[in-house]
Automatic annotation (TrEMBL):
GO terms for biological process: negative regulation of transcription by RNA polymerase II; rRNA processing. SUPFAM superfamilies: beta-beta-alpha zinc fingers. Residues 154-221 are annotated as: Disordered. The lineage of its organism: Eukaryota, Metazoa, Ecdysozoa, Arthropoda, Hexapoda. Pfam families: zf-LYAR (PF08790). One of its GO terms (cellular component) is nucleolus. Its main location: nucleus. It comes from Drosophila suzukii (Spotted-wing drosophila fruit fly). The gene is LOC108008530. This is Cell growth-regulating nucleolar protein.
Length: 294
C-alpha cells in the first residue's frame, strides 16, 4: 500500500483516502501530496498512477553507492501488478467505448492497489469500498474478464509461435547436418541394438566352456564320457535313457556337493547330458535304451 503526505496540512494519508482527504480536511485546496517512500511530489490526479514504490532497502541503496539492493521476488505482487496493467490498458483502449460511469469506476480502481482478482470478491470490494453500484460492478468485471482472456490468448499464441520456431530450427539443423554425422548416428544405433544379442551369445558360450565348480570354490571337471560309459557298462542288456539320466544326475549332484540342483543348474545338466550322450562314441542309443556300442 502506497502512503502519501499531504503537503498542505502534513497529514499521512493512504492512497485510497487521498480523494476523501481533499473533500473533507483540505477542502478547496488543489491536491498536492508527496510519496512517503520515494519523496516524489504529485499534483492534481498525478498520484493515481503511482501504484508501486521503492522498498526501504532500495531507498537506502540510492543513498549509499556501496550497497546494492535486490528486487524481492513476490509472485503475488507480480500477479497484482499484471492485474493493474489490465485496468490501465482498458482505460487507454478505445475498443470498449466506456460510458461515463464505467470509465469513472475504472479510474477509481486505478488508484487502488489491492483490487481482488476473483469475481465475487471483486464485486463485494467495489460495492463496499469504492461505493460502486452492484450492477455497475458486474459490467466492470465483464470488461476486465474480456481483456484478461484476450491477453491470455495472445500469450498462448506467442508461446506456440516460439515453440514452432524452435522445432523448425531443430529440423533445419538436422537436415543441414553432414551425411557422415547421420551415418555415424545410425551405426551407433545399430551397435546398441546388437549389443544385447552379442552379450547373450558370449554368456552362453562362457557357461558351456566353463569348468564345473563345487560349492567349496574348487574347480573340478565332471568327466561326462567316463561316467556315462561306466553306468551303461554295468547293464549287460543296456539301460533305459530316463534311468541313466537319474543315476548320472545323482552323481552330478554329489560332485557339486549339494543336496538339490538349482533351476539353472538343472537346465544346464539336462543340456550337457543330451549333448554328451550324442558325442559319446562308445555308446549307442536304441529307442529309449542306451547300450555299449558294438
Amino acid at each position: 500500500m502506497v502512503f502519501f503526505t499531504c503537503n498542505i496540512c502534513g497529514e499521512s494519508v493512504k492512497k485510497p483516502a487521498v480523494e476523501k482527504h481533499y473533500q473533507m480536511r483540505c477542502r478547496g485546496n488543489e491536491k498536492n501530496v508527496s510519496c512517503m517512500d520515494c519523496l516524489k511530489d504529485f499534483y492534481g490526479d498525478e498520484y493515481v498512477a503511482h501504484t508501486k514504490c521503492i522498498s526501504e532497502a532500495q531507498k537506502y541503496a540510492s543513498q549509499n553507492g556501496s550497497f546494492s539492493a535486490k528486487e524481492p521476488r513476490n509472485k503475488n505482487a507480480q500477479k497484482q501488478e499484471s492485474w493493474m496493467d489490465i485496468i490501465r490498458a482498458i482505460l487507454d483502449s478505445s475498443e470498449y467505448n466506456l460510458t461515463g460511469p464505467v470509465r469513472s469506476a475504472f479510474q477509481k480502481l486505478q488508484s487502488v492497489d489491492n483490487v481482488p482478482r476473483k469475481r465475487a470478491k471483486f464485486e463485494n470490494f467495489v460495492a463496499n469500498c469504492i461505493k460502486i453500484p452492484r450492477q455497475q460492478a458486474t459490467q466492470v468485471w465483464d470488461i476486465l474478464e474480456k481483456e484478461m482472456n484476450k491477453m491470455k490468448e495472445a500469450k498462448q499464441a506467442e508461446l506456440a509461435r516460439e515453440k514452432a520456431e524452435k522445432e523448425q530450427q531443430k529440423k533445419d539443423a538436422e537436415a543441414e547436418a553432414p551425411p557422415k554425422k547421420a551415418e555415424k548416428k545410425q551405426k551407433q544405433k545399430d551397435a546398441e541394438e546388437e549389443a544385447p544379442l552379442k552379450k547373450k551369445a558370449k554368456l552362453e558360450a562362457t557357461e558351456d566352456a566353463a569348468p564345473e565348480k563345487s560349492t567349496n570354490g574348487i574347480s573340478t571337471d565332471f568327466d561326462w564320457p567316463a561316467q556315462l560309459t561306466k553306468l551303461v557298462a554295468k547293464e549287460t542288456d543296456g539301460i533305459f535313457l530316463e534311468k541313466l539320466r537319474k543315476k548320472l544326475l545323482k552323481k552330478y549332484t554329489k560332485h557339486l556337493s549339494v543336496e538339490d540342483l538349482t533351476e539353472k543348474q538343472a537346465k544346464k545338466f539336462q543340456k550337457r547330458f543330451d549333448k554328451q550322450l550324442k558325442l559319446a562314441d562308445s555308446l549307442q542309443i536304441d529307442g529309449d535304451v542306451v547300450k555299449i556300442a558294438s
